[in-house]
Amino acid sequence: MSDCFINGIACISAQPTTDPDTFLEDIISYQESIFRSHDPNYKEYIKPAAMRRMSKSVKMGVAAASMALNRSGVEMPDAIITGTGMGCKQDSEKFLENVLHNDEQFLTPTLFIQSTHNTVGGQVALGLGCKAYNVTYVQGAASFETSVMDAQLMLSEEPNRKILVGGIDEVAKNSTLLHKLDGQIKEDTTDVINLLDSDTSGTVASEGATFMVLGGEKTDKSLAKIVDVETISAATPDEIKKDIEKFMKRHKLSADDIDAVVLGNNGDVTYDNYYKNLQSSIFSNIEQLCYKHLIGDYHVASSFGFWIGCKIFETDQVPAILKVNNVTANKYENVLLYNQYLGKNHSIALLQRC
């Protein structure tokens, strides 16, 4: 695979992450199991007339894409690739409610058109006037990583391309509650900041959007190099351990060469053993970082890990709120990311300082 550089990145999450000059200095503590993102002033990125017709995921996606492009110095991308686990759930629910309330008659098509998974990518393209390659991947919790892999393949053919890659998911009233009914979301009121100490099943749900501009050539805006990304459909904790060891070996690295590992622990006692098995074995002497006690969990939450990696390289520091062990790296050259959800959709990624 050819070189792939992150030349600009922006993140909207449940924390104040839109200011490029801050790195989790101010933390919002949530007390509920379902909470929304901390929003920027969308009027700075979207015309008010257009914003009235946009769902939350579309607003987050368009704003985050605009921020990422601005920070990379790119006006027009050569491709737009998005990943989402559930798509525009709010408009889907509104359309289905109208079907029921209006006895399947006199339905306007707008909500249906805006309910599809590729709505965000389409709206970003419309706003930019971009007629280039535009595709959306819906691969559960590996949706964002699949989008990155597509961008890597494109860059291996044409390294001079500037590719906008993003991941978006939103909270919606009914479908999110269905996840609560099947046990994916905790029942009780939860002090989310202590989520990683939980001894119950389920996690907390939120929403967010992360966009980044990828290129095959290093620029003065480059924040990190994506060395490799791998996804695994299903595996046991021991199999994942072996897969990560193979992943590192493929790049002539061992655990000793990894300066920090960013893990997707989400407080679900049923599945956090995937992470704990690694934390107590091959990652025991590595600085361990977690983030879902800050932003909650959603299908593309792993994209937040890419943002963390870029901020670490940019600032050369790690906020204490991310640290979950007592090891501190002497330098930050290699950052490994690992995430899974419900024992499936495992993803491994390696970022390097560039």
From TrEMBL:
Pfam families in UniProt: ketoacyl-synt
InterPro entries xrefs: Beta-ketoacyl_synthase, Ketoacyl_synth_N, Thiolase-like
Domain of life the protein comes from: Bacteria
UniProt entry keywords in alphabetical sequence: Transferase
All copies of domain Beta-ketoacyl synthase-like N-terminal, residue ranges: 46-214
PANTHER family for this protein: 3-OXOACYL-[ACYL-CARRIER-PROTEIN] SYNTHASE, MITOCHONDRIAL, POLYKETIDE SYNTHASE-RELATED
Name this protein carries in UniProt: Beta-ketoacyl synthase N-terminal-like domain-containing protein
Source species taxonomy: Bacteria, Pseudomonadati, Bacteroidota, Flavobacteriia, Flavobacteriales
